[in-house]
């Protein structure tokens, strides 16, 4: 065990998990001059970081003991449980701060909050909203939830990552709640985009030819998101200009054209199905935002 790995230090951090994101986080801490201890389940992933000055701990408990703040960034909370809920690691974490930046369902963050409280571990949950290439730059976006004073206490170290750091509230599942909703948006949007590329190709339009027009669609979304958010929170669901009856007809065109080319149309079929359900419930004159209300009905 190295001396550096055992002495807690004010401007020090431990990073557990050295996948692409964990390595990016550790690299940004090192670049900012924060003493960084690293550990990963599979040894060797931190070699480059060690060459840049990181301390490689021999065990997870040694890694945790090296810093007041441990940042965990692994594939999901099953993986973080595998590492953290071993007696030696849990004991080493007692009285220290744990920040879990792995992505998972909000319920897992809440469960981890309960476990941390039961073991005297100071716990913050968080989510990273931007890709590895942004880490250490102003373009990175981090969301946090948990005790506000704990977040404040560790801001000096977290700020070393650069970017935007937003504390969303004390309820421990809140960062994961934002994350899951935004992942829903991102993956369905990207799935829609990949489907559009396949459909365009079947019609003889290359991805490069379509791309500028796809970017045009992307550009109309931000104001639409803002307007739709108002409607959903106000419960107005205005269909003026584009009622569900009209929207569903264009969705059906996508389904039929896809299937005429033998392309799986289940993505658009799902959206069309929800729209038709809303129409069946008497909301055909409303706008697309009515679908959010219908989906939320129990
Ligand atoms: P992965 O999601 O592939 O996570 C890889 C890391 O998880 C490795 O350190 C791996 O260890 C570890 N791991 C997996 N299973 C276990 C286990 N059972 N026990 C211990 N460690 C385990 O890659 P990323 O680093 O990219 O992502 C980490 C987190 O960051 C994820 O939750 C991801 O959703 C989130 N994120 C990633 C972004 C990105 O652009 N990559 C963007 C925003 C968020 P080993 O090397 O031993 O396999």
Structure description:
By secondary structure, the chain is of the alpha/beta class. It folds into two domains: 12-169, Rossmann fold (3-Layer(aba) Sandwich); 206-295, N-(1-d-carboxylethyl)-l-norvaline Dehydrogenase, domain 2, CATH 1.10.1040.10. The chain is built from twelve helices and eight strands. The protein has helices at residues 20-31, 47-51, 60-65, 77-84, 87-93, 106-118, 148-158, 174-202, 207-234, 244-260, 266-283, 290-295; strands spanning 12-16, 35-39, 55-56, 69-72, 97-100, 122-128, 141-145, 164-167. Helix 10 packs antiparallel against helix 11 (266-283). The chain is elongated. The model is unreliable at 1-9 (pLDDT under 50). The structure holds NADPH dihydro-nicotinamide-adenine-dinucleotide phosphate (NDP).
Describe the SSE topology.
Elements: E1 12-16, H1 20-31, E2 35-39, H2 47-51, E3 55-56, H3 60-65, E4 69-72, H4 77-84, H5 87-93, E5 97-100, H6 106-118, E6 122-128, E7 141-145, H7 148-158, E8 164-167, H8 174-202, H9 207-234, H10 244-260, H11 266-283, H12 290-295
Parallel strand pairs: 1-2, 1-4, 2-3, 4-5, 5-6, 7-8
Antiparallel strand pairs: 6-7
Q: What's the quick description here?
A:
The chain has 298 residues and is of the alpha/beta class. The protein has twelve helices and eight strands.
The CATH class name of the largest domain reads: Alpha Beta
Count of the domains: 2
SS field, number of helical segments: 12
Query: Would you list the SSEs in sequence order as H and E?
Result: EHEHEHEHHEHEEHEHHHHH
Mean pLDDT over the residues: 95
Number of E strands: 8
Q: Approximately how much helix is present in the residues?
A: 40-55%
Strand order of the largest sheet: 3-2-1-4-5-6-7-8
Attached small molecules: NADPH dihydro-nicotinamide-adenine-dinucleotide phosphate
Q: What fraction strand? A: 5-15%
Q: How far is the N terminus from the C terminus?
A: 55 Å
For this structure, what is the CATH homologous superfamily of the largest domain? NAD(P)-binding Rossmann-like Domain
Task: Note the main sheet.
Answer: 8 strands, mixed
Uncertain stretches:
1-9
The name of the CATH topology of the largest domain is: Rossmann fold
Structural class: alpha/beta
- CATH architecture field of the largest domain: 3-Layer(aba) Sandwich
Query: What general outline do the C-alpha atoms trace?
Result: elongated
Radius of gyration: 23 Å
